[in-house]
Amino acid sequence: GAGVSQSPRYKVAKRGQDVALRCDPISGHVSLFWYQQALGQGPEFLTYFQNEAQLDKSGLPSDRFFAERPEGSVSTLKIQRTQQEDSAVYLCASSFARTVGSGNTIYFGEGSWLTVV
Amino acid sequence: SQKIEQNSEALNIQEGKTATLTCNYTNYSPAYLQWYRQDPGRGPVFLLLIRENEKEKRKERLKVTFDTTLKQSLFHITASQPADSATYLCALVLLEGSQGNLIFGKGTKLSVKP
Questions:
Q1: pLDDT more than 70, % of chain B
Q2: Measured between CB atoms, does A98 come within 8 Å of chain B?
Q3: Each residue of B58-71: pLDDT tens digit?
Q4: Cβ pair A55:B100 closer than 8 A
Q5: pLDDT, tens digit, for every residue of B9-50?
Q6: Does B28 touch chain A (CB under 8 A)?
Q7: Chain B contact for A25, CB < 8 A?
Q8: Cross-chain residue pair A43–B98, CB shorter than 8 Å
Q9: Which residue among A98, A103, A107 sits closest to B49, beta carbon to beta carbon?
Q10: Which residue of A32, A89, B4, B44 pairs with B25 in a disulfide if CB–CB is 3.0 to 4.6 A?
């Protein structure tokens, strides 16, 4: 597709339920990022992949959060035993460049809106 | 502590005027600074990037300045239009540590009235 695609767009989960959020980056993009955006806040970094390698997962808030990109394209963010504080928009982004520091444009998806009830 | 602050949560201006948004940071040494536009229910869209050795960058009606001494970036939209109404986010790009980390501000919601 032309842009970064995320699914589902909206997800309502009961507390304690596991969820999986999918990201299809732009074809050929090496770098893939996940961000979490709470209402009224800026996006906060969760994790970063370069191809299939997860180079930075320092932003993942707990061991209930897990991300993978096994073939270097599609990525999945999994949240186990969801809590109410997990309610947020989860944004995926991709870039052709290997590092953010190269200055290449980062393209964001529309986000997956998670509400935990 | 490390902080990145955008001057106000909301900015209301009249169509045709220049909108000026501020981004201040403390205890960071960014290599780049980026500005994004975010519309309700959408992901951020990249607008402009400015490097630490650049004082000013322009793109059509947009202008960004970057003062590493003041630790501040200003984002200007000239001849503003109602279609410019959106939330504008600044983001720092750090070269040390993580290779993939953008540090975002909370954003400023701009409303341009006709």
A1: 96
A2: yes
A3: 999 999 999 989 99
A4: yes
A5: 899 999 999 999 999 999 888 888 999 999 999 999 999 999
A6: no
A7: no
A8: no
A9: A103
A10: B4
CB-based burial label for A79 (10 Å; 0-12, 13-18, 19+): buried
Cα(B75)–Cα(B55) distance, integer angstroms: 12
Average pLDDT per consecutive 10 residues, chain A (117 residues; last block may be shorter):
91 98 96 94 94 93 97 97 97 85 82 98
Other C-beta atoms lying within 10 Å of the C-beta of residue A19: 18
Tokens for B68, please give them.
Answer: 């590493």
